[in-house]
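Standup notes, structure subgroup. Blocker cleared on the GLP input:
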Amino acid sequence: MNVIVTKDYAEMSSAAAKIVSELIKNKPDCVLGLATGSTPEGMYAQLVQECKEGSLDFSAVRSVNLDEYYPIKPDNDQSYRYFMNDKLFNHVNIDKANTNVPNGMTENPEEEGARYDKIIANLGGIDLQILGIGQNGHIGFNEPDEELVSGTHLVDLTEDTIQVNSRFFASIDEVPKQALTMGIGSIFTARSIIIMASGKNKHDAISKLLSGKITTQCPATMLNLHPDVTVICDEGAYNG
Ligand code: GLP
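Run returned:
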């Protein structure tokens, strides 16, 4: 595992944006695995900036997002589809038809999971997966548990996650209790992975990841089994 420790959030964002933009330049039709949350926002802002300056071209890029709340309408401003449009897709020249987010309105989550994994397979897998990390070590919405699931699936969010994510909602009661998430196997179709973390509240999860030990109780530790992972974290997340 490569580890890059940056001074702060801004440097973490630049380091990640540089890797993404180099990939797009080298492989214009690359498949990006994208994440939501506050962590990658700065990275998206830099990519938008580069595109506006004309040095980055998203016209052939394809994307698959990690997860989506369930149930949620795509035009709900807390949906991850809305987040992606708002933070990236509306501001770059990507073809939205080439962007994929799990359908938070599906009537059949099981079928939706299978459909989503087929999309990833038809794209030939993911070139670069961007990940954040939950305070409890979740990646996507793969929550700590006795077992982890390989494919894209419906998951019950833990009380911790509902609590942490309630900061984005008017009240905790409005946070969906479930989500659709790529499973560990879906994530592992990625040829390379970047996991980003900023701030002391991520220190515990990052320490577990970097310990090299693997436990389903901290799903990010599964990344120790992947051959090409880069951890980009700031000093707060690294040192605590
Ligand atoms: C969310 C998302 C994850 C994200 C994580 C951390 O619930 N499902 O994909 O990485 O929690 O979020 P943040 O970056 O806001 O700390």
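Discussed briefly. The radius of gyration is 16 Å.
Next: hand off to the docking folks.
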